[in-house]
Design a protein that fits this description.
The complex is a heterodimer of chains A (424) and B (299). With 424 residues, chain A is of the alpha/beta class. Chain A has 16 helices and twelve strands. Chain B is 73% helix and 3% strand. Classes of the chains: A alpha/beta (424), B mainly alpha (299).
C-alpha cells in the first residue's frame, strides 16, 4: 500500500495540479453576463430565452438574469451610478423609455455607446430617439408599449354590446358603455390607480402631445391633449365606473380576478392577461378610445423599455455582441417572444414573420398581433423629456381635487407650478 | 531614566490612551463626521446627477418656492401633532391598566401590546396595506357589523390615507412607549397611592394627579423620541403608497421627499441634502426644547 502510494504520489500530485489549472483556465474563459430587469412573465423570461440562444453558439458565455421590482432596478441603478463604484452594477440593465434620457444625461459616460456596432436604421425611429444624446446612440431598443383596449366579451355581451360596438370608441362613449355595464352586470368598467398617471399619459400621447414640447420645455397649461386627458380621467372617476386600485399588483388584480370589464394599457400586459387560463376566449382587443380634439388618434404608447450596457462592465464586449446578435438580428427570436410572451419588439424586420400573422385562440381567434403591429405604426411620436416622473406625481396630486369639482384649468395651473419647481 | 521626567511619562501614557481610542475615533470620523460635513457642503450645490455645480443659497431659495416641500413639511407636522398625543395618551392608559397587580393575564396583555414593536416596519406596512385595501378585511368587517354602509377608500382618499398612516404607526409604536411607562410606574412608591385611597381620592384623580405628574420626565422623554421618529417617518409611507406619498401627496413625508429627490426624480443630491438639513434643524430645535423644559423642572 505504502509503496503504491509513494510510487504514484508524484503522478497524483501532477494530476491534481493539472485538474486545478484546467479549472482555472475554464474559469478565466467562462464569461458571466449579469442582467437586471423586472417582469418575470415578460422581460425576465425573454432575456432568459435570449441568453439560451446566445449560449448555444457561444458556450463560453453564461447569463445571470436577476429579477427585481421595476422601482428597485431603477433605484439600485441610480444609487450605483451615483456612488461611482462599478462593482455593484450589472453588465446589462433594462431601462424604461421615460427614464432613459434622465440616466444618459445625468450620468455621462456610465453607459456604452453602441452606435457603429448596431444598425439602428432597422428599428422603430421613436425608440432610437429616446436613447440618443449628442448624436451618440446608447442601448438596444427592446419592446414597444403600443396600447390597446382589452375588454371582456362576456361582460359586454351581457350588457348588450357586441365586439363591433367596441371598435373606434370615443372616451365619452366608453364612459357611457361603462355605466351600462355596471347597471347590467354589476362589474366596474376599468381598474384605476389614482396614484398612477399611466392613463393620463396614454390619452395625452394618443393626441400627439406630452408634458414637454420638442425642446423639452414644460407644456402643461397650453396643452389641449393633457387638458382633455385629465378631464377624461376625472370623468371616469366622477362617473364611478372604476375599481380603485393601490399599486401595481392591486391594479393587475382588478382584471385577473375578473372584477372589471376592460383594461387600457400597453401590449406587454398580454402575457399577464393570458396567464389566466380560465379566462381563455373571453377577452377581445380593440383600439383605445380617442379624444374628440384635433390630432386625436386611436393609437398610443405606454412604457416600453430598452437594454443598456454599462461602460464599466468587465464583460462589455460580450454584452454588446450578445445584444447585437439576438436583439439586433434574430428574427426567429422575435417570433418566439411574441407568441410566448406577447412582446412586440421594435426591430422592424421582425414584423414580417409568421407569428405576427397568426390568430390567437385566447382572444377568440382574433389576429391581435397584426392589429397591434398596425397601431404601432400610428403611435404619435413625442419627446418624453427627462422629468416625466416629476410631472406624473404633479398630475396624480391634482386628480382627487378634480373629482371634487376643481376646474381643469386650475388643476393644470397647479400641475404647471409643481413641474416648474422641479425643472432646475 | 524615563521615571526621571514626569512629563515624559505623562506623554507616554497619553499616547497609549489615544492609541486605544484611535480606531474608534477614526471610524467615527470616517463614517459620521466626514459625511455630515460633506452633506453640508453638498447642500450648497445643485445639478443633475453627477453634474453638480456650486449654487450658494439657491437650494434654500428653492425650498421657499417648493409647494411639494411645503406639503411634505405640513404632512410631517400633522402626523406629529395628531399622532404623538394620541399615542402617548393611549400608552399611558394601557400602562396604568396593566400595572394593576389584580389584573388577570397581565403578562399576556403586556406581551401582546408590545409585540408589534418587534415586527419589521416593512412587513407590517405590507400587512396593513392588504388589510386596508378597498375590499380588504377591515372594510368587509366594518360593513358586516354595520358600522359603515360603503367601503372606506383607505388608500385612495387623501384624508383616509393620512388616517391610515396614523393608525398604522400608532399600532406599531404604542406598546414601545407603554414599556417605558410600565418601567417608570414600578418606581412610584405604592404608599402614595395608598394614602390617596385612604383619603378617598377616586381612581381617575389618582391617575391625573399622581401618576401623570410623577411620570412627567418619562413622558417628556417619550414625546421627544416619538417626535424625532415621526419627523423621520419613511418606511410606512413608502410601503403603503409604493413610494409615492399619494394620494395627491397627502401622505408625503420629508424623508420620503428626500428619497424621491435622490432616487425617483432626476437625481439632485444637493437639493436632497438641503431638505435633510431641514430635518436636522427641526430635531435640533426640539432637542433644545427638551433641555429647556428639563431645566425648568429642576428648579
Amino acid at each position: 500500500m505504502d509503496i503504491f502510494a509513494r510510487a504514484h504520489l508524484s503522478r497524483i500530485a501532477a494530476l491534481a495540479l493539472a485538474s486545478a489549472s484546467f479549472l482555472a483556465v475554464t474559469a478565466a474563459e467562462a464569461k458571466e453576463i449579469t442582467i437586471w430587469c423586472w417582469d418575470p412573465n415578460f422581460n425576465v423570461a425573454i432575456m432568459k430565452e435570449a441568453g439560451a440562444r446566445y449560449t448555444k453558439t457561444h458556450p463560453d458565455v453564461t447569463f445571470n438574469v436577476v429579477d427585481f421590482a421595476k422601482t428597485d432596478v431603477e433605484q439600485k441603478l441610480q444609487t450605483g451610478l451615483a456612488s461611482g463604484t462599478a462593482d455593484a452594477l450589472p453588465d446589462i440593465v433594462l431601462i424604461e423609455d421615460y427614464g432613459a434620457q434622465k440616466y444618459l444625461q445625468s450620468f455621462p459616460g456610465a453607459f456604452a455607446a453602441l452606435s457603429g456596432t448596431v444598425d439602428y436604421s432597422g428599428f422603430a425611429p421613436y425608440k432610437v430617439e429616446v436613447m440618443t444624446v449628442d448624436g451618440q446612440v446608447y442601448g438596444m431598443p427592446f419592446d414597444s408599449g403600443v396600447t390597446g383596449l382589452y375588454y371582456r366579451k362576456d361582460y359586454l355581451e351581457q350588457a348588450g354590446f357586441k365586439p363591433e360596438d367596441m371598435q373606434n370608441l370615443t372616451w365619452d362613449r366608453f364612459i357611457e358603455i361603462g355605466q351600462q355595464v355596471e347597471a347590467k352586470t354589476g362589474k366596474k368598467m376599468i381598474g384605476l390607480d389614482p396614484n398612477d398617471a399611466g392613463l393620463v399619459r396614454i390619452i395625452m400621447q394618443s393626441a400627439g402631445q406630452w408634458y414637454f414640447d420638442k425642446e423639452g420645455k414644460a407644456n402643461i397649461t397650453g396643452n389641449p391633449a393633457l387638458k382633455a386627458a385629465v378631464e377624461t380621467v376625472g370623468k371616469i372617476m366622477s362617473a364611478n365606473i372604476y375599481k380603485p386600485a393601490n399599486g401595481w399588483s392591486d391594479w393587475v388584480g382588478t382584471f385577473t380576478s375578473g372584477d372589471v370589464a376592460s383594461v387600457v394599457t400597453g401590449v406587454w400586459i398580454t402575457g399577464t392577461v393570458k396567464a389566466q387560463p380560465d379566462q381563455a376566449g373571453k377577452w377581445g382587443v380593440a383600439p383605445i378610445p380617442a379624444l374628440s380634439i384635433e390630432g386625436a388618434t386611436h393609437a398610443s404608447n405606454l412604457g416600453g423599455s430598452s437594454w443598456y450596457v454599462l461602460e464599466s462592465s468587465a464583460e462589455k464586449a460580450e454584452a454588446i455582441d450578445f445584444l447585437n446578435e439576438i436583439y439586433g438580428k434574430d428574427i426567429d427570436f422575435y417570433q418566439k417572444i411574441l407568441q410566448d410572451r406577447g412582446a412586440v419588439g421594435s426591430l422592424l424586420a421582425a414584423r414580417s414573420g409568421a407569428a405576427y400573422e397568426a390568430a390567437d385562440p385566447f382572444f377568440g381567434g382574433e389576429k391581435v398581433w397584426q392589429n397591434f403591429s398596425d397601431w404601432l405604426a400610428k403611435v404619435p411620436s413625442v419627446n418624453y423629456g427627462i422629468f416625466t416622473n416629476e410631472a406624473d406625481l404633479a398630475v396624480t396630486a391634482q386628480l382627487p381635487a378634480l373629482t371634487q369639482g376643481t376646474p381643469v384649468d386650475e388643476a393644470l395651473k397647479a400641475i404647471d407650478a409643481e413641474v416648474a419647481g422641479h425643472i432646475q | 531614566m524615563a521615571l526621571a521626567r514626569r512629563g515624559g511619562i505623562g506623554r507616554y501614557y497619553d499616547v497609549n490612551g489615544w492609541l486605544f481610542v484611535a480606531p474608534a475615533l477614526g471610524l467615527i470620523a470616517l463614517f459620521m463626521v466626514y459625511p455630515i460635513f460633506w452633506s453640508l457642503w453638498m447642500s450648497f450645490q445643485s445639478g443633475r446627477g453627477m453634474m453638480m455645480k456650486f449654487a450658494g443659497f439657491g437650494n434654500i431659495v428653492r425650498l421657499w418656492n417648493d409647494a411639494v416641500f411645503i406639503k411634505a413639511l405640513t404632512n410631517t407636522m400633522t402626523y406629529f401633532v395628531v399622532q404623538v398625543p394620541i399615542m402617548i395618551l393611549l400608552a399611558l392608559i394601557l400602562a396604568s391598566l396593566l400595572n394593576n397587580p389584580r389584573l388577570l393575564g397581565r403578562a399576556f396583555f403586556r406581551t401582546a401590546i408590545f409585540l408589534p414593536c418587534v415586527t419589521s416596519l416593512v412587513a407590517y406596512s405590507v400587512l396593513f396595506k392588504g388589510m386596508f385595501a378597498f375590499d380588504g378585511i377591515v372594510n368587509s368587517t366594518l360593513q358586516a357589523i354595520g358600522i359603515i354602509a360603503s367601503p372606506i377608500p383607505w388608500q385612495t382618499h387623501p384624508f383616509w390615507a393620512k388616517a391610515l398612516v396614523i393608525i398604522a404607526i400608532t399600532w406599531r409604536w404604542t406598546g414601545y412607549n407603554m414599556i417605558f411607562y410600565l418601567a417608570a410606574l414600578q418606581n412610584i412608591d405604592r404608599s402614595i397611592y395608598e394614602v390617596a385611597r385612604i383619603d378617598g381620592v377616586p381612581a381617575w384623580a389618582r391617575f391625573t394627579h399622581i401618576t401623570i405628574p410623577l411620570l412627567k420626565p418619562v413622558i417628556l422623554f417619550t414625546t421627544v423620541i416619538s417626535t424625532i421618529g415621526t419627523l423621520q417617518l419613511f418606511d410606512e409611507v413608502y410601503n403603503l403608497t409604493e413610494g409615492k406619498g399619494g394620494p395627491s401627496n397627502a401622505t408625503l413625508t420629508l424623508s420620503l421627499y428626500i428619497y424621491n429627490l435622490t432616487f425617483r426624480f432626476m437625481p439632485n443630491f444637493g437639493y436632497a441634502a438641503t431638505v435633510s438639513y431641514v430635518i436636522v434643524i427641526l430635531v435640533a430645535i426640539l432637542a433644545f426644547l427638551q433641555f429647556f423644559m428639563a431645566r425648568e423642572r429642576d428648579k
